[in-house]
What does this fold into?
Amino acid sequence: MTALAAAPRRATASAAHRLSFAHLLKSEAIKILTLRSTWWSLGVTAALSVGISLLIALATSGMGGSMEPTNVILAPTQFTMLVAGILGAIVVTGEYSTGMIRSTLTAEPRRGAVLLAKAIIVALTMMATTIVIYVAAILLTAPLLSTSIDWATPGDSIVPLALGVVSMACFTLMGVGFGFLLRSGAGAIAVTVGVLFVLPIMLSLFSIAGPDWMWVVEAGKYLPVSAAGSLTRAGASDLVEPALTMAGWVLAPLLLGWIALRSRDA
Amino acid sequence: MIVADNLTKRYGDKTAVDGVSFTVTPGRVTGFLGPNGAGKSTTMRMIVGLDRPTAGRVTVGGQEYRHLRSPLTEVGVLLDAKAIHTGRSARNHLRAMAATHGIGRTRVDEVIELTGIGSVASKRAGGFSLGMGQRLGIAAALLGDPHTLILDEPVNGLDPEGVRWVRQFVRHLAAEGRTVLLSSHLMSEMSQTADHVIVLGRGRVLADAPLPELVRTWTTTTLLVRSPRLDELVTALEIPDATISAVEPGAAQITGITPETVGDIAAARGIPLYELSPRIGSLEDAYLALTDDSVEYKTKEIA
It folds into this structure.
C-alpha cells in the first residue's frame, strides 16, 4: 500500500479543458485499444481470414484457378463477420457488465454523442484491421494463384475489396447497435450471431419446401450476409439494392440502441 | 451548489425518491445519511443524469447535469468503486476519462500520486481490492479539478489511513469553497467529516440541518451525577420533567435538567459532588431516533 499524499495539491488550470467530440473520439480510441478482448478479437479475425484465404489458394491452385482472385481474399468473411459482430457487441456490453458505462456517461452526458463516437471508433478499428488483413492475404496468396487480381479493372479488384472492408465495419456496427439495445453480452452476441449466421441457414432450409414458401427463401436475399455477398462480388453491376439493405441492417440496430440508451436509466 | 426541487423517482409502484428538495451549498461538507434503500444513491444518480427523475428536477451550478458543457471540470463523481472496466489498467482508465475533456497525462499522473495508487496504476482494475478501486474512483473524480464533488460511500473499504485521508481531503476541498456532497453509513466518520447533514428515509428528507443542531434536536443530554449523598440530592432536585436512573451505588443519570441547576442545588444544600458530567448525544443517536420509523430492512432487537 502506498502512502497517500498528505495535502491535496491544486490542480493544473482547468479552464482549457473542455468536452468536445474530437476529445470523445480520442477517449473511445484509448478505451478500445487498451482492452485485451479487442486484440484477441482482431487477432482471431486476422488469423481466420488469412488462414482461410491461404487454404483456398492452396486448394484451387491445382485446379487452374477457377475462382475469382478477389474471392480468395473475401471468402473468409463468412466466418470473420461473426468475430466482427461479437467485437462490436462486447465493446458496448463490457461497459454495462463492469459498470464502466456510468463513468462514460458522467464524462459525456449527451448519450447520442457517446454512441456515435463509439460506433465511429469501432468501425474504423475494424476497417483498419481488415485492410491490413487483405494486404497480407493478397501478398501471401499471390505466389499460389495462377490468376492475379486485375487491378486495371476496378470492378474486379479495388471495388469489391473496398466494399469488403466496409461490410466488416457494418457487421461490427450491428454488434454495437445490439449491444446498446440489449446491454447483456450474452444477449447481444446471440442476436448478432443469430442474424448473421443462423437466420440465413434457417431461411435457406425453405428451399426444399414447396413454391408457396419460396418468398421465405427470397427474403433471405435481404439478410446482411447476402447483401455483403452481392456487394463484394467481382464485376457486380447493381450495388444500390445490397447497399441499401446493408445500410438498413446497420442503421436499424443503431437507431434502436440509441433510443434505448436515451430513454433507459444507466 | 446542488439544488434538488421536488425530486421524485418511481420504479413501477415502488417510490425510491419521494419529492425530495434540498440545497447543497459550497464551502462546507454536506453529508447524506440514511438507511439502506432510503434513496441516497438514486438521488445521486439523478444529480449526475444517469437516472431520469420521474418528477422534479435537480441542478448543479444552476444547470441540469446533462447540459453541462464540461462536466468533469464542474463535477467530480464517485458513484461506486466498480464503475470501471475490469480489463483496463488504472492508468488507462484515467487516461480514457481524461481524454474526453482534453486533460493531459500530467494531471493523470497527479491524481494517481494524490490518491496513492502509483504502485498498481499499470495493473488491471479487475484485480483491485475494494479500497484500491475506491481510490481509483476518487482519482477519476478529481481529474477535472471540479468545483463540486459527489461521493457515494467514498470510505467504503478503505483502511483507517485512507479513511482519514478522505476526511481531511474533503474538508480541505470544502475549505477552498467547493461543494462537497458525500454519503456514508458510518456515523462516527460522518460526524467527523460533515458540517451539514441531510437525512433521508424511505425516499423523503427527514432532516436537513447543521450537524450540531441535528444532534441537539434529536438527542437528549444526560447528566452523570456522582455523590456520596445521592438520595438526598435527588430528593432536593424535585424537578417534574427530570428522569433519574441509578447507574451504580452513588451514581445516577439525570435528563431534563441543566448541570448548572444541579450544581447550584448541591452547593446550596452543602452536598458534595464527585462528578457532574453532561453526556451529549451522538450523531448515531440522532440518526437512530430520526430513522426509527423509516428503516426498510429492520433487524430484531436482541433480547
